[in-house]
Amino acid sequence: MVKIRLARHGAKKRPYYRIVVADERKPRDGRFIEEVGRYNPCVHPAMVSFKQDRIDYWIANGAQPTDTVARLLKNAREDA
Known about the structure:
Blueprint: E1 2-11, E2 14-23, E3 34-40, E4 47-50, H1 52-60, E5 64-65, H2 67-79
């Protein structure tokens, strides 16, 4: 199954995440199909950016967002 999930980057204790579309069997920071956004929890307020059209495309084609990504999407849509 294809998932929309976070891939961790950044330094120790300074996380920075990419929101990626990946096969669920791949490792967390391994190969992915497409990068569809970024999330930086270390700045105040947290920075979240999405390619909304690409996320909608992947969800329409059966990709499942993880709980964390679903929460970020919901909060971003409420703020907009």
